[in-house]
């Protein structure tokens, strides 16, 4: 008999949930210790003292396990960003966006292997192509949309409360307009295409800066990418009309 909503889980279900959680946590340790290429069911099973076939009672495939690890990592990152956002003082969208951007870089630089699985090309190698999966959204897609929403919601709030310069829709390339319009159709709040263009441009700069630092692509010029990140963050604050809310890290309130 299935459990009714609100009823406590049976002992069997609790044991299964604990085992699922342990498998995902072990898979993350394997990822950190051995890299993406070492993230195999056999390696995870060995760490847990199980046989690889036994893992198939909990996950259908290696890809299924990796997808759940990815979703867990997104949840951790989102929780970290949300905690920083909610603790920011003053609690304005601009100040929060600056704090969240710093927190994103902080998580990324402290979790190289995890960041590579979430955002790097290496992670794509461990996931099966879309045409080899069943219909419907998968855990990483749902979690990834939530991650994007942390930044998107703050930029939308800045625009709605303060506004910032945006290009006229007619000045955008028709092919770009079409893609931005399709993206906007998926969002809960309707915004001008120019706003989405600015948001996407800012995100490319912020995300690109973090990726280049994490993957070592700035070492040709920078031993410490922190000051360059702050320079970009200050410039993006000006683009979004919140330059007056930017403060160097040393000047942040305790």
Automatic annotation (TrEMBL):
Residues 40-59 bind DNA. One of its GO terms (molecular function) is transcription cis-regulatory region binding. SUPFAM superfamilies: Homeodomain-like, Tetracyclin repressor-like, C-terminal domain. Keywords: DNA-binding, Transcription, Transcription regulation. It comes from the Bacteria. Residues 17-77 form the HTH tetR-type domain. Coiled coil: none annotated. The keyword DNA-binding applies. InterPro entries: Homeodomain-like_sf, HTH-type_TetR-like_transc_reg, HTH_TetR, MT1864/Rv1816-like_C, Tet_transcr_reg_TetR-rel_C_sf. This is TetR family transcriptional regulator. It comes from Blastococcus colisei. The lineage of its organism: Bacteria, Bacillati, Actinomycetota, Actinomycetes, Geodermatophilales.
């Amino acid at each position: 008999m299935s459990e009714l909503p609100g009823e406590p889980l049976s002992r069997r279900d609790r044991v299964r949930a604990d085992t699922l959680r342990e498998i995902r946590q072990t898979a993350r340790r394997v990822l950190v210790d051995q890299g993406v290429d070492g993230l195999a069911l056999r390696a995870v099973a060995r760490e847990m003292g199980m046989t690889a076939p036994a893992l198939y009672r909990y996950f259908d495939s290696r890809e299924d396990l990796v997808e759940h690890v990815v979703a867990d990592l997104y949840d951790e990152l989102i929780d970290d960003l949300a905690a920083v956002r909610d603790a920011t003082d003053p609690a304005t969208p601009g100040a929060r966006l600056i704090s969240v951007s710093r927190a994103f870089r902080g998580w990324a630089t402290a979790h190289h292997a995890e960041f590579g699985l979430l955002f790097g090309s290496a992670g794509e190698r461990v996931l099966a192509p879309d045409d080899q999966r069943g219909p419907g959204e998968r855990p990483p897609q749902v979690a990834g949309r939530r991650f994007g929403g942390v930044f998107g919601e703050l930029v939308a709030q800045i625009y709605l409360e303060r506004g910032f310069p945006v290009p006229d829709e007619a000045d955008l390339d028709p092919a770009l307009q079409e893609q931005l319009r399709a993206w906007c159709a998926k969002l809960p709040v309707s915004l001008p295409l120019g706003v989405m263009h600015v948001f996407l441009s800012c995100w490319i700069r912020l995300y690109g800066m973090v990726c280049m630092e994490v993957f070592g692509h700035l070492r040709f010029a920078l031993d410490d990418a922190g000051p360059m990140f702050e320079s970009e963050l200050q410039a993006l604050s000006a683009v979004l009309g919140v330059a007056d809310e930017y403060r160097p890290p040393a000047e942040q309130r305790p």
